Amino acid sequence: HGMRLARGDAAPVPRRAWVAPRRAVVARAEKESAVPPLGDAPMIALAGDGVRSEAIPATPGVYAIYDETEAIQYIGLSRKVSASVKLHVFELPKQCAFARCASLPDAAKPDLQAAWKAWMMEQLAATEGALPPGNTSGNALWTERKNRKTKPNLRLTKGDGDDASDEDVQRLCGEAVKKHRFVAFIKGTRAEPECGFSHRMCAMLDELLVDYETIDTLDEANNGNLRNVLKTFSDWPTIPQLYLDGELVGGHDILEEMHANGELKEMLAPAEK
Questions:
Q1: 3-state SS of the chain?
Q2: In the prediction, which pLDDT does 27 show?
Q3: What are 186-237's pLDDT values in tens digits?
Q4: How far apart are alpha carbons 18 and 20 in whole angstroms?
Q5: Which of 18, 99, 150, 225 suits 188 as a labelling partner, its CA being 20 to 30 A distant?
Q6: Are 208 and 219 within 8 A, CB to CB?
Q7: What is the percentage of the chain residues whose pLDDT exceeds 70?
Q8: What separation in angstroms does the CA of 240 have from each of 14, 179, 214, 234?
Q9: pLDDT at position 3
Q10: Which residues contact 73 (CB under 8 A, 6 or more apart)?
């Protein structure tokens, strides 16, 4: 989620004229918004498990993304900052090394827009009117999202996964892949995957318009020790995994290769008829 400005709208006056009033402009924007200044927000490293840092709020708010040189790339707003930052990292890893975030848990849409404006005005003032690359007119990399269905995950149990034995979980896996034509065992959900490989697998299936089910291997409350049991069930060492008509198609690497050469589309299309 985010907003873009046309470059002509960002700095309609000569740059020299922009510098003089910048303090007043930033002060006014900050006064109109409850968000703290962009420069006061801590810089959060996103490498490794940094993308899951508790410092990245799972609430409405604003955020800014920086590359490995700490050059700003994008300023966005979101109903769930952690989900938006995570998707950026999965989709544009080279541009996403650090983030600054501000949580606005009770914010309505106008509040988020005002906060975004305050951060953007601060950035423009600091750079004499230069927009972050991702916010420039015509750059859709950061804002275009394929419409991802909000279909919920399948659950192997009714919430008593902690009491399910490994044998029970393995049996339930077998029942799930036989009952449903397409089943993707992933980390997280299709709307908010917890790893880049799961994100990519869901993106490939979405792109091919496949009506598939997902099972979260991290959901121990509903799926027990699935993350470990699945490796025995499938005799495949990695997650995610895709099943078609009860048979293992493969993991992320195999699907990526099949998608690139057209085999995946050819294999899945007949099953959709």
A1: CCCCECHHHHCCCCHHHHHCCHHHHHHHHHHHCCCCCHHHCCCEECCHHHHHCCCCCCCCEEEEEECCCCCEEEEEEECCHHHHHHHHHHHCHHHCCEEEEEECCCCCHHHHHHHHHHHHHHHHHHCCCCCCHHHECCCCCCCCCCCCCCCCCECCCCCCHHHCCHHHHHHHHHHHHHHCCEEEEECECCCCECCHHHHHHHHHHHHCCCCCEEEECCCHHHHCCHHHHHHHHHCCCCCCEEEECCEEEEEHHHHHHHHHHCHHHHHHHHHHC
A2: 52
A3: 999 988 888 889 988 998 888 888 889 999 999 999 999 999 999 999 999 9
A4: 6
A5: 99
A6: no
A7: 84
A8: 52, 19, 10, 11
A9: 55
A10: 65, 66, 67, 95, 96, 132, 133, 134, 142
User: For the residues 14-34, what does the mean pLDDT come to?
Assistant: 51
pLDDT value for 123: 93
Q: Which residue has the tokens 């955020």?
A: 63
First-last CA distance in the chain? 35
